[in-house]
Structure formats: structure tokens, C-alpha cells
Amino acid sequence: MGQGQTSRVPAAARRLRAYDNVSHARLLHNLKKRRLGHFVPWVKAFLTNRSTRIRMPEGMSDTILTPTGIPQGSPISSILYLIYNADLIESCGAGITSSGWVDDVCFMAKGDSEHETIKKLKTACRKADQWAEKHASVFDPKKFALIHFVNTKEVDRKYLSLRLREHT
């Protein structure tokens, strides 16, 4: 890239079944970690003894206990997921701006070259993979997007791909 020019690269990803996979123990831990421990008894009661039934053409299923997850229809669920998700947003590494809303996350890297920005995003993706492993989450490879904002006359094509888990 020319002198004084920068490479900017946002990467966006979405998690599959985000609400369904929330670990109650991890969520309660995150509440305490963020000095919201006074909400733990209420949240624990809110999440305890939850069950679901599935309506099918043949009729209703038996009641199924749901020991993980948070209900999608509750107004508090988005807030709880943001607390659950906070470590992912906070831990993506130096030189990365990150944001998220429930099942979506976006990382933005800025650098003097494609190589520098991709290196930063690789670190962020590695940390996101570690977060996903620890939080029983899966990123949807079909919803992963990477966009390079660079001068196309000076792009080094070997830095144009990025891997999230085993997907390019």
C-alpha cells in the first residue's frame, strides 16, 4: 500500500442457536464478574425449572426440560445475552474494535497493510473460537463476512482470506 494509506477490514459473524445454548452457570458467573451479583438470585430463579413443548402436525410433544438457554420471548433475554456475550466483545485483542448484538458480532481492524489487518483479525477470530468453545456456541460459516477496504491497485491477494474455525 502507498505511504499514509491504511487497510480497514471488518469481519462479521453470527452464532447458531445463540439463546438456546446459553449455559446458566456461565451466565451467572458473568453477572458476578461484572459486579451484578445482586441479580444472580433473580436470574437463577428465572432460568430454573424451565420446560418446553413442541407443536407438530401430529400434536404436542411431551414436556421437555430445558437446562440450558434463555427464553427468546422475554424482554430481559436480550440483556442477559449481552452479559453472556460480553467476554467475546472485550477479549478480541489489541487493535480490534468489536461490537455485538445478541447473536451477531463484528470485528474491525485497521492497519498499514492487508497483512497487518488480517493478522489482527486472525487473533480476534482465534479468541472468538476460544470463547465459542468455552460457551458452547457455534459460529455459522454461512453468515461470516469479510470486507477489505483498500486501494485495489495495491492489494496483496495472499492476505484476502481468513479462517473462523475450519471455514475460510
From TrEMBL:
Residues 1-164 form the Reverse transcriptase domain. It comes from the Eukaryota. PROSITE patterns: RT_POL. Pfam families: RVT_1. This is Reverse transcriptase domain-containing protein. The lineage of its organism: Eukaryota, Fungi, Dikarya, Ascomycota, Pezizomycotina.
